[in-house]
Design a protein that fits this description.
Blueprint: H1 2-15, H2 17-45, E1 56-61, H3 82-91, E2 97-108, E3 117-124, H4 128-131, E4 136-139, H5 144-148, E5 153-157, H6 158-165, E6 174-177, E7 180-188, E8 211-214, H7 217-221, H8 240-244, E9 252-256, H9 260-279, E10 290-294, H10 295-301, H11 307-337, H12 339-347, H13 352-388, H14 400-426, H15 430-436
Parallel strand pairs: 3-8, 5-7
Antiparallel strand pairs: 1-9, 1-10, 2-3, 2-6, 2-9, 4-7, 5-8, 6-7
């Protein structure tokens, strides 16, 4: 019976091509706008490392004295001071931990035709690649001894290797980061999560860094931060050493727990450290506080998906509702024009339910055709976003889930619009149209 209804629906659509096309385009535009905003929202809110996001935790310490506030909901700074990050890194009971900061330098190689260009880099401890699943194409991360010695080594991405050398197997080659020459010890595969969750301070959707150097370079070579640096108290800072020892917060710190018992143990380790620091005159608050937030909690805590994005999704569905209201009248006119046919079918034994179902199948087919138009328009809209918004290359896309959602929304929208017209037609008395016939 369904196939028969589908055949009737297709015939009826072809009999009124102009009106049918008008409805398909109207709903298609609404679906296009809706899927554009919904796809961006979906990618923004998606878990960027779903298989282990509940194990990775961002570490926060409440370094503020009593009476001071922060822009976070619980007044805890988003980042750590250098002394705190260094202590947690060097004394942690966990193997899987990482301290890091965004920096940058002019990158070039020792060739006459090599033109220096500015490249952001990540100054990080060696477990960064393990914690965040950064795959290696060649080589590996620097050794522990190289880290301790602040050796001039670097890990670069395959894209940067191709840019500088025209190939990816560049182990042992050297690159200049500013005035310092670094040996390449590893080349990573392309690493670009949809959300730069491990450092959301500047732009959570910006490109990941393509150069990585040991964390010990900060102190050894006075490597500056290219990220956010925030202070909360007045301090005399006359040198880089003063800056390192200050209460400025500018470093990110992450750990990975394999069990809840590890998390409790680490929490006690952090509390013991804060208690000792309080005895030395820091952390002057009545109650010591710290946070260990999972990746989803961290993204929500930092409002990575802003309220503006949610409002845009709501507005797009309102626009779709307007499109549905517009086609309701067209469907009613179209169905009432065919009321005599429905009357004949009723006289021949068709029930009201069958008449109602037949017309709903027709509007569902209109919805399916509209979804094709909507997906095409959404692709145009997403391409426009990628072309105008920096860092949205992996956000303004439509994945397979959204491709499946599009026809569902479109069909539902058309079914909602078709309920009343179909009900009116099936309630029509057959005798009225039989007299006319």
């Amino acid at each position: 019976m369904l196939l028969h209804y589908c055949d009737l629906a297709w015939r009826n659509i072809k009999q009124t091509p102009f009106v049918s096309m008008l409805m398909i385009i109207a709903i298609g535009i609404g679906i296009g706008v809706t899927m554009t905003t919904l796809s961006v929202y979906h990618m923004m809110s998606a878990d960027p490392i779903a298989h282990k996001s509940d194990k990775l935790h961002a570490v926060q310490l409440q370094v503020l004295d009593d009476g001071y506030t922060w822009r976070t909901e619980d007044d805890v700074p988003l980042q750590l001071t250098y002394p705190d990050a260094k202590y947690l890194l060097e004394n942690s009971p966990l193997e899987k931990r990482v301290a890091m900061v965004k920096s940058g330098a002019a990158v070039h190689i020792d060739r006459p035709d090599s033109v220096p260009f500015i490249q952001s880099l990540r100054v990080t401890s060696r477990h960064f690649f393990e914690l965040f699943d950064v795959p290696f194409l060649h080589g590996n991360v620097w050794s522990e001894s190289q880290s301790e010695q602040a050796a001039l080594v670097a890990v670069i991405s395959e894209d940067l290797a191709n840019t500088l050398f025209g190939k990816t197997d560049v182990l042992g080659e050297s690159i200049y980061l500013g005035e310092r020459l670094h040996e390449v010890v590893g080349v990573t595969k392309t690493f670009q999560p949809t959300v730069k969750f491990y450092d959301v301070n500047n732009d959570p959707f910006e490109a990941s860094e393509q150069v990585f150097v040991p964390f010990t370079h900060i102190e050894a070579y006075k490597v500056p931060s290219w990220g956010n640096t925030n202070g909360w108290k007045s301090e005399d800072i006359d040198s880089f050493e003063d800056f390192l020892n200050s209460e400025n917060v500018w470093l990110q710190f992450w750990v990975e727990f394999d069990s809840e018992s590890q998390k409790r143990m680490y929490g006690q380790f952090v509390m013991d450290y804060m208690t000792e620091q309080q005895k030395l005159g820091r952390f002057n608050r009545k109650a010591l506080d710290y946070n260990l937030k999972t990746v989803p909690q961290w993204l929500e805590y930092n409002h990575v998906v802003s309220s503006d994005n949610k409002i845009l999704v709501g507005l797009s569905f309102m626009f779709l509702a307007v499109c549905v209201a517009n086609i309701l009248g067209l469907l009613l006119a179209k169905f009432m024009k065919r009321a005599p046919d429905a009357g004949v079918r009723r006289a021949l034994g068709a029930s009201k339910t069958q008449i109602f179902s037949q017309h709903l199948v027709e509007v569902a087919l209109l919805g399916l055709l509209s979804s094709i138009v909507g997906v095409l328009l959404a692709q145009v809209g997403l391409a426009g976003i990628r072309g105008t918004m920096s860092g949205y290359d992996l956000i303004a896309i439509m994945d397979w889930k959204m491709l499946l959602v599009a026809p569902v929304i479109s069909i539902l929208a058309c079914l909602i619009a078709g309920l009343f017209p179909a009900w009116v037609v099936c309630k029509t008395s057959p005798a009225t149209h039989l007299k006319v016939q």
